[in-house]
Amino acid sequence: MAVKKLTILHSNDLHGDFLPKVTDGHETGGLARLAGYVKSVRSSEENVIYANAGDMFRGSIIDSEYLGLSTIDLMNHLAPDVTTVGNHEVDYGVAHLLFLEKCARFPIINANLFVTLNNARLFQPYLNIDIDGMRILFIGILTEEVIASTKTEKVIGTFIDTEEAAKEVGIICDNYRTKNTDMVVLLTHIGIEEDRVLAECLNPDWGVDLIIGGHSHTQMDEPEIINGIPIVQAGTGTGLIGRFDIEYDTELHKISSLNWRTVILDEAAAEPDEIMSELLNHYKGETDAKYKRIVTSFARKLTHPSRIQETEMGNLYSDLIQWESSFDIMMMGSGSIRKTELGPIVDYQSMVENTPYDDILWMLKVTGAQFRRMILHVLRDEAWEGHTEFYQYSKGVRIVYRKSTHALEEFKLNGSDITDDQEILIAIQNYHYNSFDEFLGVPLEEVKANMKPRVVATSVNNLVEEYFSTNQGLDAHVEGRLVILE
């Protein structure tokens, strides 16, 4: 048996997590340490591929201040062998993304973003990597949530159905997988739930060997095997990296041994890369001079530990946006709050990094019956299993939901039961407005019949900054606005 070794390292959802975290004097993560680990593995192992499964951008002032150009510069030094497009790669616009791709000295692949006028793909759909006589075919697949970020760009489309994406994989495999292809790897950014669906849809004859995913920020202890295909993800940020150690039988043309694990990127894993550290210090120095002014102070550190529960920061933000407003309920997207903790001292940089997706705020009128349908849709089973949109609610809301019966046991506003014919003014961010039907389960056209939706603020962060700067000692607690019963 002729065996060759291959190591595949992979990250996903870096989200601008460029700087290390220090806990009790110990450093974890940071782009410099990630670069140091990749460099050390490349020097110590025979055949190494480093892949990134999307969402390099957002989450850091270093990224947003330069509209992603700084991230591309840093990633050029990290030098991934292949990357795919994540949903946040389009946050600065598709045209800007295509510009950033021209600045990248590493390949970016995606099979299912296309121009609607002629079905021309925006990116190279696949990449063959030849290493030590082995040929690895990578195919990039993007999340359907890209639609929400490109509503205004009508010439851009994507396959929003996972089964259609699977057919596209089949087309690429039929056309570009040859007798010289040793492995096929899907580099996806669709979330663990959709990765499972995708794996089920794949024809074994297409020869897909691995799915390396992202988007749902799933931290795994071992691969999940669906339809004979291992699916993996490496959480989020730069504190972890996924690692495959593979033995490939070149006579039988198949994987003979496969081991996967995540590696914690701490001081024991690797030393920080010096050049990356210098690059980061340059960008950090530029942004610190502009963003390190104090905005407010909290009474204590506030937390946002999970997107699928009521949180302290969720209550704070939804309350301050609803404060002295013309609407009854603020529905703050849980994913709009990016940090797990903030305070007690809050500088401008931390404020912007915590809510980086600044957008306009819409007010809509819904009936009590429509609001009930919306809440039941948000709290459907998929909310607990994968990556759906979830919300934080302003004061006065009381929702008690039982998972086992899929029923609302309490449904109140300001202490009174919400009736079906009651009229309620809600506010949502533009991202959620653009995908109202999908995220909230009620047709937007149906809601528009109640009242023409109205823009009530052009910048959510303007509201946040003004409230922070005029209020000190802010505090918030989990109050039972949203209670989930097993």
Helix content: 25-40%
The proportion of strand residues reads 25-35%
The overall strand count is: 30
**According to CATH, what is the topology of the largest domain?**
Purple Acid Phosphatase, chain A, domain 2
The rounded distance between the terminal residues' Cα atoms is 53 Å
Q: Based on the structure, what is the oligomeric state of the protein chains?
A: single chain
Q: Summed up, what is this model?
A:
This protein is an alpha/beta fold and 486 residues long. 30% of the residues lie in helices and 29% in strands. The strands form eight sheets. A six-stranded mixed sheet has the order 6-5-4-1-16-17, with helices on one face. It has a six-stranded mixed sheet with strand order 9-10-12-13-15-14, covered by helices on one side. A five-stranded mixed sheet has the order 24-20-28-23-29.
